[in-house]
């Protein structure tokens, strides 16, 4: 489990295309410290498994389904990525419950800068709209954020200078894709209410 608090801004150092998947090599000195084969690391919000590691880098295999459902397929050598290790049992819970299971992708529609923050508008797939509410939580490229405005086909987030400086959201521009993971609690509530309705 992750919390959506990005630990460092890493870099894709190599992309190897396979028949039905690809392998990324990622530079991330912080997240590779103490890493072992089989550990999980979230890359732009996608939970990936460490295959090899060393010299401040790790490799991870990404299957076709993940490439299809996320924006990882758009990454290339030199791309910057948000990195986070799983939460430890005695760690601080700084964000919200993030599984690293991307629900879909959105596209940055616009950016409105202000003196102390920036409002970013992101398109919202129709099937995810019901899970996104004003002042609720959402994960964008692995970053735990609070929804400012929630509409049927878009939502907005407000980014503080720290988030702009330390994550990919500071440099992504209109037209760029982002990974979205909605709040898992909303999906559980929907499931339970649906089951109760069917039992009547």
Automatic annotation (TrEMBL):
InterPro entries: ATP_synth_asu-like_sf, Lumazine-bd, Lumazine-bd_dom, Riboflavin_synthase-like_b-brl
Pathway recorded for this protein: Cofactor biosynthesis; riboflavin biosynthesis; riboflavin from 2-hydroxy-3-oxobutyl phosphate and 5-amino-6-(D-ribitylamino)uracil: step 2/2
Entry keyword set: Repeat, Riboflavin biosynthesis, Transferase
Known EC number: 2.5.1.9
Domain of life: Bacteria
GO molecular function, one term: riboflavin synthase activity
CDD domains referenced in this protein's UniProt entry, alphabetically: Riboflavin_synthase_like
Enzyme class: transferase
Gene3D superfamilies, alphabetized: 2.40.30.20
PROSITE patterns per the UniProt record, alphabetical: LUMAZINE_BIND
The Lumazine-binding domain, residue ranges: 1-96, 97-193
Reaction(s) the record says it catalyses: 2 6,7-dimethyl-8-(1-D-ribityl)lumazine + H(+) = 5-amino-6-(D-ribitylamino)uracil + riboflavin
Pfam families linked: Lum_binding
Intervals holding Lumazine-binding repeats: 1-96, 97-193
UniProt cross-references to NCBIfam families, sorted A to Z: PRK09289.1, PRK13020.1, ribE
Biological role stated in the UniProt entry: Catalyzes the dismutation of two molecules of 6,7-dimethyl-8-ribityllumazine, resulting in the formation of riboflavin and 5-amino-6-(D-ribitylamino)uracil.
UniProt-recorded name of the protein: Riboflavin synthase
Annotated source species: Streptomyces endophyticus
